């Protein structure tokens, strides 16, 4: 009997581990996988968190033993698809138990399992989970807890079409095809508060479709003294713990600043490759929230908490393109006639032209649209200028400056980093390919004749749904999925207003505070 032919080869392939069978690791990743497993075993780690980004940009995770981690580095690990098909409150959005799962994708039928595959380049050891000290040592535990980011696949090896990290990778491949790489710097505002009580009451417990009331908190400093050293010093003990953790997690922190509102903090990070920057944002948010709670505090990335005097927070995304051949910043102008190169101006033109339909990715919550006010430190229209804090895109740098970049000020801290950056690439490359002119600088930023940014998430979702560009470059199935997911969120907000016979006014509502304050 000859053991040859397609059937034999297929059977042999089926016997290979999942990652090898579907060629999901490069040679470099295979070597890294062996290295991180050796490190985990040598350091005596007891568990590893397999983490993945959901559609909201929140970190989800499974805690697995070292033995299961070793298996995941060969065959991935099963997870529930529900982390992608329920909304932020746990409400069911899609018809999961019908053919195609309500999304017209055969693999989505029946709320199936997915496979998460660790990216060994993202492996870390959580610095606050060292079981070798304190109560852990007394209980006889050895080692600590590792953390690794994963990409999501169907069980047949196909990339999961709603995995935000996979979506960003596809857009970065388009950048690479042109001989460039994208660098991204993060500038993120958030709030630090002190927990008033550690008791979880009945009102702090939610249910499917209902976010609970957040636990009670107190301000840590009076606020409204921007960069005030005394306010900074009041927060210093917690901030030092955070800075130490960021360093151990290899997050490239540059600065921590006391911003405007009471306990409002801004963290800036050095530029990184775009995928690494998105990973940094995910880990930064989840690490900050976890460590603050361990220290008796609460960190919230909610844009505008429904607390008196709390000013909106933003996320400014700095971006540049660099030639892979020579390392030159291709946005940098050759001379002083223009603030950007011709390519840079066209890329900027794309950001301006496609800002309205892309706002659902940069500002994906009901609460986030409370930032877009005239004469604030946030934009209200798709505008640009050189070193101007009232526009949407602030151009920084100039001739001979390798740090020349575009600072897009449209984002909110709750944005999904993978989708926000992917949206920038889609819009920017459309500008490059179309040779789009961004028009003159908008020195009078709040009276410029520019397209106004959407006033609400519902409006932004309508614009995204109708966008041929985003449907083409991100895929119509993903756009339809994302719009439906977020419209459920809008629907719950509108139901809240209707039940109370009120309108969405200038101030954040109780619903927004419950929905976002202790989720992001």
Could you please describe the fold and organization of this structure?
- The protein has 520 residues and is α+β, with helices and mostly antiparallel strands.
- The chain has 2 domains: 18-162, Glutamine synthetase, N-terminal domain (Ubiquitin-like (UB roll)); 175-516, Creatine Kinase, Chain A, domain 2 (2-Layer Sandwich).
- It is built from 16 helices and 15 strands.
- The protein has helices at 6-14, 18-21, 27-42, 66-75, 82-85, 134-138, 164-177, 229-248, 274-294, 342-353, 355-362, 417-434, 457-466, 468-474, 476-500, 510-516; strands at residues 47-53, 59-65, 77-80, 113-118, 124-125, 145-153, 180-195, 217-219, 253-258, 264-273, 297-300, 315-323, 384-386, 393-396, 405-411.
- Strands 7, 8, 9, 10, 11, 12, 13, 14 and 15 form a 9-stranded mixed beta sheet that branches.
- A hairpin with a 5-residue loop joins β1 (47-53) and β2 (59-65).
- The longest helix is centred in the C-terminal third of the chain and has 25 residues, at 476-500.
- The termini are far apart.
- The model is unreliable at 130-142 (pLDDT under 50).
